[in-house]
Amino acid sequence: MTRPVVDLTDPDRFVRQEHHAMLAWLRENDPVHWHETGQDGGFWALTGYEEISQVYLDHTGFSSESGPMLGGSFRSEKDPSAGLMMVATDLPRHRMIRQQLHWAFSQDMLRRVAEQVTRLVTTALERALADGGCDFATDVATELPAGAVMAITGVSYRDAHDLIGMTRRMIGFRDPHFTDPAEDERLVLAMTQADIFEFFAEVLRARRKNPGPDLISRLLKAEMNGRAWTEDEILYNCMNIAVGGNETSSYTACSGLEALIGHPGQYAELRQTPGLLDSAVNEILRWSSTNLYVRRGALRDVEIGGRMIRSGDVVTLWNASANRDAKQFTDPETFDLARTPNRHLSYGAGLHRCIGAMLAQTELSVLFRAIAGLPVTAALSGPVQRLRSNFINGTISLPVTFHGRNGTGDRPE
Ligand code: HEM
């Protein structure tokens, strides 16, 4: 394999899907790679499944407190949300926050989310069928987080979609579809975060007066270490759940449908074999690797894969690469809905492993069960538009039409 140009910070390479070649080359040749940035030095990019797992599971050697994303600085600095927002908090505080947020992901909540998402997805698919097609990214996939947000926070359908608009802009802060390229990226990010805070501050005011069976009413009564939660803690963690869940689940839904359309044999299998659904959802998660990487900061010197990572260094864990590692997965470049075992790292691993994983499985299972049960198959009807981001593998437009019973237009694999 010839060495591709490796620049893991350039979002345009991700739009053009060049990251697959970059990550494959690194995994083969330099799985613990020092990525020069020319500014503050650089960061480590880990691409092997084993090396990445080692960091995920070493909670004393690596910190989450510089936030999950590469920022303007490549020094290991604390994010303003460190110690307040679960994803950017280390032990022992992380455990206290997580215990209290678990309610939002209980069996009862999964049932409520399944009901809400089923209702919304059924309506959206019926509308798409009646119209002969739709933009799946905006007309169907966003109904997944809408249902989850409504069930968890008790807000209306319209408010849930307003919130999704904001989280989409936050994750898409480098994409001209969501922001004006003339605007300062950092400023856009800060302003969108302020809008999300204001959204939840308003819900909080309403719940103080009229509590309900929702997460915010619950956090208003909760105690952590013998004191009430501060307003900042509530707002940061509501934002964590919204940003953590809105784009990831809907973008995974888009990648999943696109993969099915691109693999008609697998699509047909799923339609004929309902028992394939669970493994199919996992394969869609592995294949899409929506959260391309997460970030950590080294707290001490640690040797990984023969390289010495120094205390204070920034480290990135490329889930998207671990999920294609041939040492872990047989034929990793094959999209195989029956793949078992399938220990993908799309939800991360260790203490910060996605708290919404079961909720996402629920949303995606509802969606793909409904899609597999349709009397017709989807086909692309226009160009796919990808999110300009090196952090989230997103699809912002996925135009589809629905074909006849035998899926006319299918091409052999
Ligand atoms: C396909 C869907 C999803 C993917 C691919 C995904 C991915 C991830 C990953 C990789 C992490 C680990 C971050 C780290 O280690 O730093 C994470 C954590 C998290 N996710 Fe998800 N996620 C998904 C769905 C959801 C949903 C539906 C929610 C909530 C409704 C959610 C909320 C969170 C939160 C709050 C955390 C932080 C957990 C902690 O720090 O302990 N995610 N997610």
From TrEMBL:
Enumerate the UniProt keywords alphabetically.
Answer: Heme, Iron, Metal-binding, Monooxygenase, Oxidoreductase
Name the CDD domains for this protein.
CYP142-like
SUPFAM superfamilies from the entry?
Answer: Cytochrome P450
Q: Name one GO molecular function term.
A: iron ion binding
The organism's place on the tree of life at top rank? Bacteria
Q: Which PANTHER family match?
A: CYTOCHROME P450 YJIB-RELATED, P450, PUTATIVE (EUROFUNG)-RELATED
Family membership, please give it: Belongs to the cytochrome P450 family.
- The name this protein goes by in its record: Cytochrome P450
- From which source organism is this entry? Streptomyces actinomycinicus
